[in-house]
Design a protein that fits this description.
The chain has 374 residues and is α/β, with parallel strands linked by helices. Helices cover 34% and strands 17% of the residues. The chain has eleven helices and 14 strands. The termini are far apart. Bound molecules: pyridoxal-5'-phosphate.
């Protein structure tokens, strides 16, 4: 049987990974400055993560959400403590798209409305409502286009106000720092205006922190740079360091009822353990502060590279914009320099999404190898 051929592949087969080092089937090593698309938050095969998961696997891997699972309670307590989001409830699922799908559905239940406001260049996943709120017609099939989504440009206060005044929207969904779109971020003033208008019009504000959450931008969540409080916060990627886990934090103003949301796999024992292990390492190794510190070091080095037109992003969700497209450069970086980097919808942006425990030496290596190809 052939694999359904939807992914263009690099010709590399990693078989082992530790920290930021990947080893392929020929014994060649590569440095991972991409984290499998911002997923690897605490480094590959972190010993605490491996021990925790092994222990849990020997104990019990899975049971459905029809029994008590104290690991879910433990995870919600730890999340509250580390994120500082104190007035929220936790619902667990398995991926970023699923988190946003549940967030949008909940907003629709809560308000009785169906319209969504999303932003230009957004990416929220590939499922029904999540992909409809994604500003990319190519990945929206006719079935997805049935959703009512209005797109507005970041920082366009007037257009946003006109839209939200129509009173047909259940939710506004935003990425505090856009990921796939190319690291664009509006002003705090804009976000505060959006939050205020959502409150006035009883529209649910959803922060999609699937990529930017779990410390990646130098705060636990990226919206925390802007002084806003969303009603729902969606999470995934860095949450499990590679184990599939997602979730939403739901403000206490939104009340649950039995059967309103549900999932077979979401919040299972292995997923909760993976996420607890990630949070324990983030806390013990002070990784959020490290992300902020490494941002400063990276930006300082980037400014000295003459070919770099612009440095974008925050924490360890960073990008270098060049005059030309970076597709070929990324290939050369993998095959000649053995470093993995990321791309985005902005074809001139080379993205840097490493584990949050990288060091200044790792950043030095990145720039050395990058310069070899410029
Ligand atoms: C901001 C954002 N939201 C949602 C998603 C979708 O997540 P997943 O691929 O886990 O469904 C992504 C994935 O890149 C993302 O960057």
């Amino acid at each position: 049987m052939k694999l359904f051929d939807v992914y263009p592949l690099y010709n590399v087969t990693p078989v082992k990974a530790e920290g930021i080092t990947l080893t392929d089937d020929k014994g060649e090593t590569y440095l991972d400055f991409y984290g499998g698309h911002a997923v690897i938050s605490i480094g590959h095969s972190h010993p605490h993560y491996v021990d925790r998961l092994k222990e849990q696997l020997e104990q019990m891997a899975f049971y459905s959400n029809s029994i008590k699972n104290p690991l879910q309670e433990e995870l919600s307590q730890k999340l509250e403590a580390l994120s500082g989001c104190v007035d929220y409830q936790l619902f667990l699922c398995n991926s970023g798209a699923e988190a946003n799908e549940n967030a949008l559905k909940l907003a629709s239940f809560h308000t009785g409305k169906a319209g969504v406001i999303a932003f230009r260049n957004s990416f929220h996943g590939r499922t029904s409502a999540a992909v409809a709120a994604t500003d990319n017609p190519k990945i929206n099939a006719p079935i997805n286009r049935q959703h009512q989504v209005d797109f507005v440009a970041l920082n366009d206060l007037t257009a946003f106000e006109q839209l939200i005044s129509r009173s047909n929207h259940c939710a506004v969904i935003l990425e505090a720092l856009q990921g796939v779109g190319g690291l664009d971020e509006p002003t705090s003033e804009f976000y505060q205006f959006v939050a205020k208008k959502c409150r006035e019009h009883n529209v649910v504000l959803i922060a999609d922190e699937v990529q930017s959450g779990f410390g990646r931008t130098g705060k636990f969540f990226a919206f925390q740079h802007h002084g806003i409080q969303p009603d729902i916060i969606s999470m995934a990627k860095g949450m499990g360091n590679g184990f599939p886990v997602g979730g939403i934090l739901i403000h206490n103003d939104l009340q649950p009822s039995f059967g309103m949301l549900g999932t077979t796999f979401g919040g299972n024992h292995m997923a909760c353990t993976a996420s607890l292990a990630v949070l324990e390492v983030i806390e013990k190794e002070n990784l959020i502060a490290n992300a902020a510190k490494m941002e400063a070091y990276f930006k300082e080095k980037a400014e000295k590279v003459p070919q770099v037109q612009k440095v974008k992003g925050r924490g360890l969700m960073l990008g270098l914009e060049f005059e030309d497209e970076v597709g070929e450069l990324r290939k050369r970086l993998i095959y000649n320099q053995h470093i993995f980097t990321g791309g985005s919808a902005n074809k001139k942006l080379l993205r840097f999404l490493p584990a949050l425990n990288i060091t200044s030496n790792d950043i030095d290596l990145f720039f050395e190898r990058l310069k070899n190809e410029l």
